[in-house]
């Protein structure tokens, strides 16, 4: 079976007004069980080619198939383990949590405990499992990345300079592990710059191919077979490693997306809990509720639930668009998204988990505003009214949270901060706050804005009138949910979601 097929692939990058060609008409296939060493000088385009194979980049022309599928398809990566340069995991997450998360993506993960998996990559200290990522040394992080690639029990390993930062002992263990994987039939594609890998690669690789820089293409083509080491016996392990052997050929059970969602959701919630600045920053706006008492001539019960709704709106849009967008932009520039995109995590599950965890923060914020409103401002509406307004606010904010996530992936991280902050000034006008110029035209345009329909929907619920337009507002929000949802999946998959 062909695990990788590369047909006539060309890659050009725009450099100012000119185009820079990196790969030209590359044709290449890798069969199951091969161990391919992809050689080439620095800058030849090896990482570019591997990124295309992993679905992080679409070639300018030509076609790539990974496990017979489009590499951007999450299912193509069900049996692929990847170690790439410039990927990172969130610093405040623990090693155990990362292993569990990556394990949950695989339909048939290695039947080993987390401790055993860490031992495979020479991470033997027991306390490392409960250590956060931040204090780990470079070598320990690199070993963990290999563990994350192996935990899903891959049939194909794509390794881009996997031995960088490794100490001598870990280097030895790395090669023992790779030899074992190869003997168990795992296909391997590897690049390295390090001289001390050459001896092992010369011994183990079944094919050596060299990628020439575009400027020095020989007549035979840019990617050249340097040697084919055929008939190299792959000694399958004898009795001692039967378990591992069986685990790779065990029948695959289809993945339960709900289980992946639960794990991803748990991970997102833990990440939020460990980011107190995010939580305190957003929830501190709730502290403005008692300030409404400072209005001249304030009497208890004088402030209406409508005013609480406007305050909730400000808080929810801050959380869902500004805070979430910035968070995603940081995650993206740090390299976590790049790592996630090399896994088989379905984009929809990722987006759903992120939005659901954020809605919990929104729910806490609304609940706090209502409690303060009741207690400090004397807004004694019925429980039923509070509950229906709560539901209207929380369900209605969902499309905008998806929009916030999308903006985090669309905007360049450097500009995301200012653009998202600016959006908070624009949103009130999109909701229908009158503008000082051309009010009639703006009013017409505003009625097309989902922000306006969100405001109108919640106000209609609060006034508990039987406004027939409630259904219209609801339909607008459903439309916005579908539109933002589909475009968020597209934005997640697109090449420029990876920051270079
Ligand atoms: N997104 C991008 N935009 C513009 N140029 C890029 C982009 N990605 C890669 N390049 C350029 O493509 C060339 C090849 O880079 P690549 O990282 O693929 O080489 P490499 O063979 O892996 O080198 P190394 O071994 O040093 O990592 C480099 O000149 C790099 O600057």
Automatic annotation (TrEMBL):
SUPFAM superfamilies: P-loop containing nucleoside triphosphate hydrolases (SSF52540). One of its GO terms (molecular function) is ATP binding. Its main location: membrane. Residues 4-245 form the ABC transporter domain. The chain crosses the membrane at residues 307-325, 348-377, 383-407, 419-437, 470-492. InterPro entries: AAA+_ATPase (IPR003593), ABC2_TM (IPR013525), ABC_transporter-like_ATP-bd (IPR003439), ABC_transporter_ATP-binding (IPR050763), P-loop_NTPase (IPR027417). Keywords: ATP-binding, Membrane, Nucleotide-binding, Transmembrane, Transmembrane helix, Transport. It is found in: Membrane. It is a multi-pass membrane protein. This is ABC transporter G family ATP-binding protein/permease. It comes from Nostoc favosum CHAB5714.
């Amino acid at each position: 079976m062909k695990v990788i097929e590369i047909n006539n692939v060309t890659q050009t990058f725009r450099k100012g007004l000119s185009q820079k060609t990196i790969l030209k008409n590359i044709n290449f296939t890798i069969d199951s069980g091969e161990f391919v060493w992809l050689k080439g000088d620095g800058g030849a385009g090896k990482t570019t080619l591997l990124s295309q194979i992993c679905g992080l980049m679409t070639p300018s022309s030509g076609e790539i198939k990974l496990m017979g599928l489009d590499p951007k398809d999450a299912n193509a990566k069900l049996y692929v383990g990847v170690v790439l340069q410039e990927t990172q995991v969130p610093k405040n997450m623990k090693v155990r949590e990362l292993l569990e998360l990556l394990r949950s993506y695989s339909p048939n993960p290695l039947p080993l405990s987390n401790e055993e998996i860490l031992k495979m990559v020479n991470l033997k200290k027991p306390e490392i499992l409960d250590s956060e990522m931040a204090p780990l040394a470079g070598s320990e992080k690199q070993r963990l990345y290999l563990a994350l690639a192996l935990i899903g029990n891959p049939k194909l390993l794509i390794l881009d300079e996997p031995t960088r930062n490794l100490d001598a002992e870990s280097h030895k263990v790395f090669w023992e592990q790779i030899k074992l994987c190869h003997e168990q039939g795992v296909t391997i594609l590897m690049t390295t710059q390090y001289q001390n890998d050459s001896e092992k690669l010369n011994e183990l690789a079944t094919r050596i191919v060299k990628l020439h820089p575009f400027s020095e293409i020989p007549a035979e083509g840019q990617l050249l077979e340097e040697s084919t080491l055929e008939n190299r016996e792959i000694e399958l392990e004898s009795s001692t490693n039967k378990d591992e052997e069986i685990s790779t050929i065990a029948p695959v059970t289809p993945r339960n997306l709900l289980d992946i969602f639960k794990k991803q959701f748990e991970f997102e919630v833990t990440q939020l809990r460990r980011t107190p600045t995010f939580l305190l920053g957003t929830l501190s706006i709730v502290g403005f509720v008692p300030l409404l008492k400072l209005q001249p001539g304030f009497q208890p019960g004088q402030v209406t639930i409508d005013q609480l709704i406007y305050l909730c709106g400000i808080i929810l849009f801050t959380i869902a668009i500004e805070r979430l967008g910035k968070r995603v932009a940081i995650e993206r520039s740090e390299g976590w998204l790049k790592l996630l995109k090399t896994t088989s995590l379905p984009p929809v599950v990722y987006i759903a988990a992120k939005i659901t965890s954020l809605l919990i923060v929104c729910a806490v914020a609304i609940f706090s505003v209502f409690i303060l409103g009741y207690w400090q401002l004397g807004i004694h509406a019925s429980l039923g009214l509070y509950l229906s307004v709560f539901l209207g606010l929380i369900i209605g904010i969902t499309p905008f949270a998806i929009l916030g996530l999308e903006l985090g992936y669309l905007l360049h991280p450097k500009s995301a901060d200012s653009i998202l902050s600016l959006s908070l000034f624009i949103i009130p006008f999109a909701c229908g706050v009158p503008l000082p110029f051309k009010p009639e035209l703006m009013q017409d345009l505003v009625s097309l804005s989902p922000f306006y329909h969100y405001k109108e929907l919640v106000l209609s619920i609060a006034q508990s009138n039987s406004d027939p337009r409630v259904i219209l507002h609801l339909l607008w929000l459903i439309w916005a949910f579908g539109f933002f949802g589909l475009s968020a999946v597209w934005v997640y998959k697109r090449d420029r979601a990876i920051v270079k």
